[in-house]
Structure to design on (1566 residues):
């Protein structure tokens, strides 16, 4: 007998047998929140329309589409994938190069001052430049475009689940995201650029999906085919895959990240198109890097687009290494869980601070910047100087540019190992930590201090109001953790410390982000070493499993904190005890097949509903009782009212109504660009007229019977990707439709609010604290 | 406005407007085939039950499940994944080792005879050993277990889509598959072992999913949780991923293959479990190979589980290589399409031969074996001998074991380059072709002859009745094609010939199998060279796109040929012109909520239906007209009849009916193990009694209104994974249910049979022959 994840109830809730749950709650209004924090601002959110409105008008339109249009459409799909890939790779490359050059110059200037002995001046230059580099994105993001704050991954993930928020994909967001990210990452804040690239990629794709930008006169007729939520969803999935691919030069890893973490719906055809997009990214980046390697990209161009090359021809490991790897994985998972827990708390505190006003957002960000500058500059003074190794492959101490052996305050012939890590870009620190044959470079205390600093700074830096990612900070923290463990067990393992650093990074990524396949492939692509595959797989699985016992993944945690109504793809066990009638709320607004214009306007003005059932009452229906004809969308009603195809008496419209509209009128505009009912002006005479809704009503809406279990209705709603689900009565004597279910009706908060008795039965995932009891019962110690 | 793949109709089918399609065809019986060729035998097929039957009995059962059971279930899920991974990797290792040793000894003996000059004797030994090695699997497969024939990939793919056939996953099939595959691959037939490994992995997983084997007393109580089609599907998906992972030592590639090609439903939780399974495979194989490399696996143990290592530290390519790569991809795609076309024809001819009787199957297979032996032994005589290179890294001519320089008939100091490829195992041939720094090893004519031979032998060998795969033959054919192209363009590209061979293999794989992501990762894992990634991605996409313009992928082609009712995940455009009422067939069998036993027995005996709507007629229902209560499955009815909980008068059963049954009674047995209605003996008195169906009826069946468009009903059916979909009437005056839709009602053959007028509108994918017209229209040359 099946027992899906969701059914793992475990509580003997007999209550539901005693108290019948079915009762008339249809007058209750769904009060669950329809707003969410997008970036750093509270915005209203809206569901997307993935369902194809099968009405006569659209059917007619499809029939008239010839081969040419199909060909255009297919061609455009691939062409857009190509454009998205090309643009995102160029942005990624530009990002990397700019950051490398700005940060490079900053460290070069500071290092030179240090060499000249002017430490105070060096600190001033360092902290002021960091402050300015932070202030710019903080101000721009806070005042101009709050949607660009943070990584954007939770927003994109929610969008791909069917939740839209105004402005997340606008051209303005894109520009702020790109330049804000460059500036913020260059400012030595402990944030990454990869997360922002996901949002950037999604923005690029969305601009095409919205038919270009009317405001800047960048439109193209052929883009009209993509003005619907389904095609936009596909494009944005490809775009986010391209983002990660460009950030890490990991095309397959990026694709899998989009598949595993971001997308809620997926199919083979989309997989191939996304694969094409990331292939374009890979080819273009490869070509650009060839250009840079020949020295044409500024003083620090060669450092861009790192591939942490840890290839050693003989990565050999034996079974004696397994215990060390297991420990690394378990502790990495624990650290990841702690990280997610702390970050959740910090984000909550920050959101309170940010909520006080825009100026507080900027102040908080600048405070973190000053604090970070102080820490990065101050800590290396604590480390003792080490003598340069005699057999070092590169100059020691490092001359000018950032390298393995930073001089900092040391005398010549010596280097400061903590400064090599901390007074450096994160990318260079990762390279240092991952590099092989450097087992004696770092002192034990250095690694510990560095690890603690990274961990702490990552936690406090993530929530500041600038475009920021999480990948690179976590990789650098994990790498220092792995290197620390390697030093601890030292000679007891044949693996070199660089390899341990890679595995440590994997374990912390697994512990925070919890996606296994994409992280595995991404790390392999980053380090170019396939022989580590078995170890990498095992460590990711262990750290994920351990961390999952405590809390959820970092993106989901943030998404929940931001209040997005994300629809899970499984039903909670208590949903099997409820029927749809238990949660459906009212009041229900219904239109007649031929409806009075004034009535429509009134309903549209007084309610916020986006879909309305259309009913044929007896004189119009061929039956003796009213029958359900279908579902009409608010956006389509508004178009109908704008078109003013009214008749003075209630009568069926003739087929020439089709000529009065074009398919473009009913195309879904980008978020926030739809017309509002208040924009339409109608005369009193027109308000008294009638409009035939039949040709524009989706005659094939999905329906469930009111006694259907809520769990099954959720599966239908989620798998098919609906916005509205009509509830029809069990007994035929009543109205042909008794309610509409939307995304919000399936939210656990709403359901538990309606049925408080279920709260204590609410089953969460089997987390750690439940395990001891289960184990005891298993062993017969508890009845 | 949306325009999904399926809607790309393009024809202006105005007919459907002229002739209303809705008419009463409910008396038509669905005549679409319910049988398919499984392996090499025609068998009845059945749909699987993925839907959770939410009835009172199950709900009661769930409520009584405590923490312990949940813990057992979760633990078992991971434990079974571990077991499947471990067993499949051991089988894969054993397979490889045995094949290497058997084939190695065969070639060693023959080569030694050749060296001694006894060519006739060598041929005799070679062909007779091949004949015997072919006869054994051919006879065993034909007479004992026809389900083990072929690769099994189409069968597993159909199973994962919801189509079950008896015997495909039995313990017998598993044994025949393993030993048959070893023997057949050792016999120098042009077949591979990877495809069989997919089926083997699926079998291993299924044996666990069926609760072990009662016949051999291998059962375990905890396995009972997996006796349902949903958990079995998950296990088998993991198993097939493990199969590919073990065959190619490509854990991520195997996982992605299962995701991209095999699975119809997928979710994150399953992804992680499958990832765990393939990680186990990777770790175990890695450990076993370490053992073998120390020489403990027989004379040829080191050859097993190849990783075609083409790592060269500087894989450099520039834009000047792009044209060559493009041509390679385009021609590879064309070759792939031709291959699929020819294979389709050959399989059709073979199925006619095989249909004549079991003895014909064996004869055909033996015929192919003799022909292959002759060709492999005869062709090298045509090649001229080449002088050994002076700077060869290995002995020339090869001593004893198969190597790069086979002596064959040549005098000492010379080698036969065609024999090095053809008179060798396929694995060794691939190694030779992929190896770098061997640009002058082969003559141009040799490569051409070898390519043609491979292509031809692969086409004629695939359909023979032994366990056989397609991967390795296609890789070797593609590698020779790539090497040929490299020789043709020679100095015009900086890429070495080994690299071209890899790309050639990729292009032919892309052209036949058409999955991009998994092939890309698999080939990278095989060759251990991540730097080739951009080229690999591009070439796979090109060859796939080119080949898709002509026909479908090889597995789908075979599946269609075998007659499996595979449910696509998109609707055909003509389905939007139809409603469910247009396709639903009858007659419909309905039961009352409290039904007479004799009536049930009669209906079960006289129909083959597997699901029946349950209706409450007025005296029982609280409404004045009959209402739909739910859906009951045949298997559950049979259990009810076996339990004999009858009452002499029509009355509701008390709640103690739950005690009379255990959840295990209703667990889904493995395919072909369910009880039949004829096994149940009931007295005349019992037949006159009544049984209350309510507690065992799924009270939340999915329903659609009869006017729902067929396309939307299909999406619901496919996405939710249904077996039965109830059709309810639009008007409430009639019976509360008007029909049941099953998988077969959505099959294009059935729909087009009912509505012949649609045939000419049937839209196929935009294949090549349609392109010129579309292009012309686009350019305005055609109106």
């Amino acid at each position: 007998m099946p027992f899906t994840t969701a059914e793992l109830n475990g509580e003997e809730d007999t209550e539901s047998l005693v108290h019948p749950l079915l009762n008339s709650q249809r007058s209750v209004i769904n009060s669950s929140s329809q707003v969410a924090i997008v970036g750093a601002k509270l915005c209203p959110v809206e569901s997307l329309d993935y369902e194809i409105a099968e009405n006569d008008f659209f059917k007619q339109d499809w029939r008239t589409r010839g081969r040419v249009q199909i060909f255009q459409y297919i061609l455009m799909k691939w062409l857009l994938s190509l454009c998205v890939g090309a643009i995102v790779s160029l942005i990624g490359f530009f990002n990397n190069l700019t950051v490398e050059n700005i940060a490079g110059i900053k460290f070069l200037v500071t290092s030179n001052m240090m060499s000249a002995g002017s430490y105070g001046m060096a600190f001033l230059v360092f902290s002021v430049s960091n402050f300015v580099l932070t202030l710019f994105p903080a101000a721009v993001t806070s005042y101009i475009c709050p949607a660009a704050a943070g990584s954007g991954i939770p927003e994109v993930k929610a969008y791909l689940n069917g939740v839209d928020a105004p402005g997340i994909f606008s051209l303005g967001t894109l520009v702020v995201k790109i330049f804000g990210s460059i500036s913020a990452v260059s400012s030595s804040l402990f944030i990454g650029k990869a997360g922002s690239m996901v949002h950037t990629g999604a923005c690029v794709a969305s601009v095409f999906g919205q038919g270009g930008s009317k405001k800047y006169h960048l439109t193209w007729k052929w883009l009209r085919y993509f003005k619907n939520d389904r095609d936009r969803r596909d494009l944005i999935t490809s775009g986010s895959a391209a983002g990660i691919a460009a950030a890490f030069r990991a095309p397959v890893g990026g694709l899998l990240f989009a598949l595993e973490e971001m997308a809620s719906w997926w199919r083979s055809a989309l997989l191939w198109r996304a694969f094409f997009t990331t292939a374009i990214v890979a080819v273009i980046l490869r070509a650009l890097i060839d250009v840079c390697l020949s020295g044409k990209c500024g003083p620090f161009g060669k450092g861009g687009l790192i591939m942490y090359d840890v290839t050693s021809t003989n990565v050999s490991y034996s079974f004696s290494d397994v215990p060390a790897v297991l420990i690394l994985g378990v502790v990495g998972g624990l650290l990841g869980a702690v990280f997610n827990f702390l970050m959740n708390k910090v984000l909550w505190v920050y959101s309170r601070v940010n909520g006080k006003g825009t100026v507080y957002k900027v102040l908080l960000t600048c405070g973190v910047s000053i604090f970070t500058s102080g820490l990065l500059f101050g800590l290396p003074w604590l480390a003792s100087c080490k003598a340069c190794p005699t057999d070092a492959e590169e100059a020691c101490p490092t001359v000018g540019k950032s390298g393995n052996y930073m001089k900092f305050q040391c005398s010549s012939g010596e280097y400061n190992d903590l400064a090599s890590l901390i007074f450096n870009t994160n990318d260079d620190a990762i390279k240092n930590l991952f590099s092989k044959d450097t087992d004696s470079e770092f002192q034990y205390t250095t690694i510990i201090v560095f690890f603690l600093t990274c961990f702490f700074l990552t936690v406090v830096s993530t929530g500041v109001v600038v475009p920021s990612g999480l990948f690179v900070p976590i990789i650098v923290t994990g790498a220092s953790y792995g290197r620390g463990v390697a030093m601890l067990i030292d000679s007891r393992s044949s693996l070199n410390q660089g390899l341990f650093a890679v595995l440590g990074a994997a374990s912390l990524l697994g512990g925070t982000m919890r996606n296994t396949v994409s992280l595995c492939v991404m790390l392999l692509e980053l380090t170019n070493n396939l022989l580590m595959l078995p170890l990498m797989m095992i460590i990711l699985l262990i750290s994920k499993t351990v961390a999952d016992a405590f809390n959820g993944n970092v993106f989901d945690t943030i998404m929940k904190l931001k209040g997005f109504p994300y629809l899970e793809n499984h039903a909670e066990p208590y949903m099997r005890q409820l029927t749809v009638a238990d949660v459906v709320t009212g009041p229900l607004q219904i239109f007649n097949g031929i409806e009075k214009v004034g009535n429509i306007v009134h309903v549209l003005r007084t309610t916020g509903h986006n879909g309305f059932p259309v009913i044929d009452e007896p004189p119009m229906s061929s039956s003796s009782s009213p029958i359900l004809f279908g579902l009409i969308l608010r956006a389509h009603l508004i178009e109908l009212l704008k078109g003013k195809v009214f008749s003075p008496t209630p009568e069926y419209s003739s087929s020439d109504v089709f000529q009065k509209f074009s398919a473009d009128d009913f195309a879904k505009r980008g978020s926030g660009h739809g017309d509002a009912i208040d924009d339409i002006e109608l005369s009193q005479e027109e308000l008294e007229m009638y409009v035939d809704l039949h040709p524009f009503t989706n005659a094939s809406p999905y329906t469930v019977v009111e006694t259907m279990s809520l769990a099954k209705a959720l599966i239908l709603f989620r798998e098919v990707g609906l916005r509205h689900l009509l509830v029809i009565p069990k007994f035929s004597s009543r109205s042909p439709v008794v309610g509409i279910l939307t995304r919000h009706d399936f939210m656990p908060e709403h359901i538990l609010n309606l049925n408080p008795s279920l709260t204590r039965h609410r089953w969460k995932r089997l987390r750690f604290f439940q395990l001891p009891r289960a184990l005891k019962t298993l062993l017969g110690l508890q009845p």
Q: What stands out?
A: Chain B touches chain A through 115 residues (CB under 8 Å).
